[in-house]
Structure formats: C-alpha cells, structure tokens
Design goal:
This protein is of the alpha/beta class. The protein is built from 5 helices and 5 strands.
C-alpha cells in the first residue's frame, strides 16, 4: 500500500457490535467506515472505496446477500474482498454467500482476533495482486 491506513467498511445494524469492531480495528491501525443498513453499505462502498468489507447478512433495506451480489457485480467494486460476518450459520447461507463471491465467512458470535487475522490475510492477498 502507499502508507495510508487500510480502509475497512463494517456493515451491521447492531450499534454495539459496530462500536466494538471499530474500537478493535482502529487499535490495529485500520481506518473504519460504518454502515447500518444495506443501502448505506452500498453507498459507502461506492463512495469511500474501502480496501475490504465486513458484511452482516441480516440488515434492513437490503440484506447482506443482496449487497454482496451487487458489490461483486459492480465493475469498480468487484475486486474488493468481502467477509460475511453473520449469525446465519446454515449450510445454505454459507454456500450462497460463497457462490455470490464472499471471500470469507465468519459466524457470530466470533472471536475478534480471528476476524483481525482473516482481514489481514485478505488485505495482504489483495495487495500482492496489485
């Protein structure tokens, strides 16, 4: 990267989870952008050009699966790694997210350090492909 902080877009309708994730990510040097629903997630993804996106499946306005499909079908956003972070742990949900282009899938409740490790891995992979 060019010395600027990695931008992470966190999309979740749980304010407490957003606050916790923002705190943990900022402590690791990430720049954090937040969205509380699917419509805001799409607007922030297009406007703020995050390096990586953490996306909840169950959100108002547009669910995470629809947001994921729209991000991955957008020419400018399709290369942005997306981690689904959701309470939905059914096989159908996981397979659907991966088929729509999710780069990783993590089930809530989650271990914050595991999320940070997965983020770092995907960002490093993205950077090496530039």
């Amino acid at each position: 990267m060019d010395g600027t902080a990695t931008k992470v877009l966190i999309c979740d309708d749980d304010p407490l989870l957003l606050e916790l994730m923002e705190f943990r990510l900022r402590a690791k040097g990430y720049e954090v952008i937040k969205a509380v629903d699917g419509a805001e997630a799409l607007a922030r993804a297009a406007g703020d050009e995050p390096d990586i996106i953490v996306l909840d499946a169950m959100m108002p306005k547009s669910d995470g699966f629809e947001v994921l499909a729209r991000i991955k079908s957008d020419r400018l956003l399709s290369g942005t790694p997306v981690i689904m972070l959701t309470a939905r742990k059914g096989e159908k949900d996981i397979v659907s997210a991966l088929e729509k282009g999710a780069d990783d899938y993590l089930v809530k409740p989650f271990i914050p350090e595991e999320l940070l490790a997965r983020l770092a891995r995907l960002v490093a992979r993205k950077d090496s492909n530039r």
